[in-house]
Amino acid sequence: MNRLIVENLSAGYGAVSVLRNVSLEVNENEMVALLGMNGNGKSTLLNCVLGFVRASAGRILLEWDGKISDLTKLPPHEIVRLGLSIVPEGRRLVPNISVEDNLRLAGSNPLVSGRMKENLASCFETFPLLLERRRQIAATMSGGQQQLLAIARSLMTAPKIMVIDEPSVGLAPIVVRDVLNAITHLRERSSMTILMAEQSFFQAVDVSSRAYVLAHGSIHREFKRSDGGIANEDIRRAMLGTAH
Amino acid sequence: MFSIDILLNAIVTGILLGSVYASLALGLAITFGILHIPNIAHPTLVVAGAFFVYTLAQWGLDPIVAAVIGLVPFYVLGLALYLFYSRVFERRGGANVLQSLTLFFGLSLVVEILLVLSFGSELKSVNVSYIGSSLKFGALTVPYRLLIPALLGPVMIAAVWLYLSRTNSGTAIRAVAHEERALSIAGLDPAAVKRHAFGIATATAVVAGAALIMIGPVEPFGGRFQIGRVFAIVVLAGMGSIPGNLVIAIVIGVAEALVASYLNPSWSPGVAFAILLLGLAFRPQGLFGAAR
User: Which of B175, B59, B47, B174 lies closest to B119, judged by CA?
Assistant: First the structure.
């Protein structure tokens, strides 16, 4: 079975512990939402998966095509080469180069650079707006456009699993819809496996197959679509930490 | 007394000298201008490059051929220097400017001492057939020993600039100081990209060294006189602007030559700083740098 497994993960910054004993799974072709209010450890968890934050305990495993890789001790660029990609908080685009150069840079590691043309064409096909603006300097685009670029960029490494950190943060509601549409479109096109952290949970839940609620650094509850739809009221309560 | 010949000669000499300054400053434009590492040892590495060329020239090699041969060992030397720098600092959460300056100051002393121990402290020069003669053009006299090194500068700068602006690994180098995480996201090791850039910067030192020793004799401590000028060029060009580097170097070269011809040669070392202060008063981001 192809999946990402987070096992009893703990992590923090110096003496401050943020995540305590977190376990979750993302299976191939699933879209999993990671819900939680600000400051409950969503970004820390995603940054652990990508190797930007080191776990203090627990393991992160990628099980794919019969091969199990332990991501826990690997540097970010090697985790990316194993098939994870991230749309990070704050987007982290290179501000002073063009849209196309941002995409080309992302597609230039030796594992994927041979398919640069195809990957670039597929990005532009999925995001026609970026084709129009490919010569534009990244920093001069609007927040929503930059978010789309960050999503497109994470496709350039031909990922098995995409990790998306709060794509709606700082964006106007109408732009949030564009961004979520883009993600849904991506799911429809390639049934991309996605782990997405979100605060504005109604929209996130609508497009997800499962959801975890993270509260005070631990998994508070898991919701499955097969439970007969995910009830928004339950999620709201779980996020506020008032119900089980 | 005003003479058009003196003016013309001063301007031409200044352009050629400036082009050589640009070669000297190119490595720093990469390490300081792009990577933001204040490598004050760069001029000393240029002098080391000059001694490398001197050594091969003793065996009868042309200085330019010697410089080309030197590209690979100097690139490797740059990798080693960056590895040392990053081991010392980046593992411990990054270096502040003062720590880096101290490290590279120490490094330049070590290189100077090594040069003195292996070559002695007297002046060394190379002798090639074209070095003694001059190109005469009416009242204009251009010695080949200045013309040939001056041609190296634009060629090398054009090559580096094309590499940085037209290739994906060049883009990675331009990106690394702005958004290191963008490289990790691309599956590229930011440390490896910086190491590679530092290697290229150090490789330019051997070409600049060849230019330096063709113009005149070089001694192990010769780099010290260049530090102020090359920093002035890189900062005034605007951090990260490679073509701007050449333009500013030529402006400084011409200004120095004019000052030396009309005022007093002993004033010329101050010219670069006077231009730097003036330039920064009007454009703090440098003349060719993007405003941040």
Answer: B47
Environment class of A65 (CB within 10 Å of its CB; exposed 0-12, middle 13-18, buried 19+): exposed
Beta carbons within 8 Å of A61's beta carbon, 6+ residues apart: A4, A5, A7, A68, A69, A70, A71
Task: Kindly list the structural domains of chain A, giving each domain's residue range(s) and its CATH number in brackets, ordered by start.
Answer: 3-92+159-240 (3.40.50.300)
| ipTM score for this prediction | 0.89
Interface contact B182-A94, CB threshold 8 A: yes
DSSP A74: S
Mutation target to probe the A interface, by most A beta carbons within 10 A, among B36, B167, B181 is B181
pTM score:
0.89
Q: Are A102 and B182 within 8 A, CB to CB?
A: yes
Q: Which member of A96, A97, A105 has the closest CB to residue B186?
A: A105
Task: Give, as one character, the DSSP assignment of residue A230.
Answer: -
**Residues in A touching B175 (Cβ below 8 Å):** 94, 97, 105
> pLDDT tens digits for chain A (244 residues)?
899 999 999 998 888 889 999 999 999 999 999 988 888 889 999 999 999 999 999 999 999 999 999 999 999 999 999 999 999 988 999 998 999 999 999 999 999 999 999 999 999 998 999 999 999 999 999 988 999 999 999 999 999 999 999 888 888 888 888 888 888 888 888 889 999 998 877 777 777 888 898 888 888 778 777 555 566 667 767 766 654 4
**Which of A43, A92, A123, A160 should be substituted to probe chain B, the one whose Cβ sees the most B Cβ atoms within 10 Å?**
A92
Report the CATH fold assignment for B4-282.
ABC transporter involved in vitamin B12 uptake, BtuC (1.10.3470)
A80·B179 Cβ contact <8 A: no
